[in-house]
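Example 9 (inverse folding). The structure is encoded as follows.
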């Protein structure tokens, strides 16, 4: 029985995937590593097959036509056999001592017959441009080292939202909730950490800097210029999150409901700010359309979002308003260096 499956989506990842995989291998027989080659044209294929041949009891190599990051994650979920499931992108890596501690806790919980839906750990931004790093932790928000529920969570700061980097799910929960990420779409990691939430009842937080998130390549999906170029995909994800929240029905816990609305407001802010700072008139209209989309589906939620953002992002006043929004964005980015 594998305690955890690590899925590593790879697309032309030959230059860095080995480092990622090498940090997962110390998990030994407790781990399953699924390398999903998403239609690569470099020697990702050969590297994946070589690892699978050398570690047949640990590593699987799966090759598929290009379907994007979301489809690679879907493939990982469908082929996983571990009790728990985590995505590790091929240009990122895990802290080995931290990973071994996490596996040990997951094993003890499983052997003790305790059900855990979500494990949360810290993640670290590793900035390539200036060789700096900063940790995102949840010490002020989540109880440490024991199982808890949504009633026990505190208030998340703007820099603390749960991301794909910080979560480990019970694999069967992902199947139970019917998660299916869209093909050929960037930014689906937001759906991965949003749509399963109403199904999560038991959580566990370890104050360990587990996930190392490499950031700074010019072609990276979170690069500002790349995000503006792919803004339609960001908007698609944003609208799917709106649809999910509005059509799910009653969220089973008030604090979870508050968190989900807060996360959605952050997504609305990101989309709106990117559309505004692009300087493109067509994008300005897309921002208006995004807010109209929310208003048409759920007017109460629309008013709630505008109240949260003081109406500034949803309806900036002239050139001065746009400049203030851009200034605020640049200042926040300078502090947190999120792209």
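The amino acid assigned to each position is listed next.
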């Amino acid at each position: 029985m594998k305690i955890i499956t690590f899925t590593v989506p790879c697309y032309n990842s030959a230059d860095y995937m080995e480092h990622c995989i090498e940090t997962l291998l110390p998990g030994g027989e407790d781990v399953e590593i699924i390398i999903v080659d998403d239609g690569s044209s470099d020697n990702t294929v050969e590297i994946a097959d070589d690892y699978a041949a050398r570690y047949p009891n640990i590593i699987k190599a799966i090759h598929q036509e290009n379907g994007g990051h979301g489809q690679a994650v879907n493939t990982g979920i469908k082929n996983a056999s571990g009790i728990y499931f985590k995505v590790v992108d091929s240009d990122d890596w895990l802290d080995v001592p931290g990973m071994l501690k996490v596996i040990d806790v997951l094993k003890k919980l499983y052997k003790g017959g305790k059900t855990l839906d979500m494990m949360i750990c810290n993640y670290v931004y590793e900035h390539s441009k200036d060789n700096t790093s900063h940790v995102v932790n949840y010490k002020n928000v989540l109880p440490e080292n024991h199982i808890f529920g949504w009633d026990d969570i505190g208030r998340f700061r703007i820099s603390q939202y749960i991301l794909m980097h910080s979560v480990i799910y019970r694999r069967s929960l992902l199947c139970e909730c019917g998660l299916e990420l869209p093909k050929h779409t960037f930014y689906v990691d937001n759906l991965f950490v949003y749509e399963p939430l109403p199904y999560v009842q038991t959580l566990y937080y370890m104050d360990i800097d587990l996930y190392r998130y490499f950031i700074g390549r010019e072609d990276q999906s979170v690069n500002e210029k790349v995000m503006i170029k792919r803004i339609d995909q960001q908007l698609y994800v944003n609208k799917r999150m709106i649809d999910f929240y509005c059509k799910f029905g009653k969220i089973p816990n008030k604090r979870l409901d508050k968190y989900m609305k807060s996360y959605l407001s952050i997504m609305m802010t990101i989309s709106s700010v990117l559309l505004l700072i692009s300087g493109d008139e067509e994008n300005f209209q897309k921002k208006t359309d995004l807010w109209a989309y929310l208003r048409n589906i759920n007017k109460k939620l629309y008013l709630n979002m505008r109240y949260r953002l003081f109406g500034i992002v949803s309806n900036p006043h002239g050139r001065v308003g746009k400049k203030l929004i851009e200034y605020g964005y640049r200042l926040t980015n300078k502090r947190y260096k999120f792209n």
